[in-house]
Amino acid sequence: MHNRNEYKHISVLLQESVDGLNIKANGTYIDGTYGFGGHSKLILSKLNKNGKLIAIDRDPYAVAYAKKSIFDKRFSIKCITFSQLESLIKRKKLIGKINGILLDLGISSMQLDNPNRGFSFIHDGPLDMRMNPTIGQSAYEWLIKATENEIFWVLKTYGEERFAKKIAKTIVLNKKNFKQNELQSTTKLANLIKTIIPYKKNNKHPATKTFQAIRIHINNELEEINVVLKSSLKLLAPLGRLSIISFHSLEDRIVKQFIRLHSSKQNIHRSSATSQIESQYFNIPILKMLGKKKPTKTEIINNPRARSAIVRFAEIINIYDHKKI
């Protein structure tokens, strides 16, 4: 494995995302995606001795790095997924006591720039794409077993790839012709796609959407986001904040729709009432939308990967039925 110091990482929307949490010096906060620790370190700098920061990351290399770089009694980190966060907070007896949750969705520069992780076709590497390389199927293992229809569905749904059918058919054809070695590395798969999709030099590489789609599928990313958003309503204290950075339309759509749904007076359908008491609160929104921010031109110049980022904010304003959500 490459040394993490080889990879330059600049936290995207760093100040904006942390400012959006409205940090209380003695509060308890969650960094849901530690990565290189940029957000965690800034949050810690705003806490007093009674404040706490709980960080998680599903990447064991990120967790190992954190344990070697932050020595602070106020800080703890676990190698878990978004969907396991609620159980962790429950064990810590902090349900409904979290003052803010920050989520930096997508992949880190370390994951993207390390050829051994298989996320990018810029450098040749094994076609892996797992955020935790010790668990589950690699991208290559999935492609070898997947049917043409399964590949098509993933590319269309998670990549919004208009050539999904053509790509899926070509991949399956290569499997049938015993050319599976074409799928074993990132550059081989990218080059295969390049031969069947029109490509203009100044445009995005034709394999970009395919790689995004396979990565999202392999890591169950969108479902993980849905679960952690739902959990956040239980975890946050009154006036607790959500600060969520997303990098593509699929992620942002989920976040935007979630905040809108729970900011609406019609957030729960009346037919789901289980008691007279609960039904009193149907027209009371749970969240307050606090807007969004995008990177400045200066940030995009300094960090081109920030160009598609957007951070959205929300605040818990009612927790009357958070245990039933």
TrEMBL record:
It catalyses: cytidine(1402) in 16S rRNA + S-adenosyl-L-methionine = N(4)-methylcytidine(1402) in 16S rRNA + S-adenosyl-L-homocysteine + H(+). The keyword Isomerase does not apply. InterPro entries: RsmH, SAM-dep_MeTrfase_MraW_recog, SAM-dependent_MTases_sf. GO terms for biological process: rRNA base methylation. Keywords: Cytoplasm, Methyltransferase, rRNA processing, S-adenosyl-L-methionine, Transferase. Its EC number is 2.1.1.199. SUPFAM superfamilies: Putative methyltransferase TM0872, insert domain, S-adenosyl-L-methionine-dependent methyltransferases. GO terms for molecular function: rRNA (cytosine-N4-)-methyltransferase activity. It is found in: Cytoplasm. S-adenosyl-L-methionine binds at G37, G38, H39, D57, F82, D104, Q111. PANTHER family: 12S RRNA N4-METHYLCYTIDINE METHYLTRANSFERASE, S-ADENOSYL-METHYLTRANSFERASE MRAW. Belongs to the methyltransferase superfamily. RsmH family. Specifically methylates the N4 position of cytidine in position 1402 (C1402) of 16S rRNA. This is Ribosomal RNA small subunit methyltransferase H. The gene is rsmH.
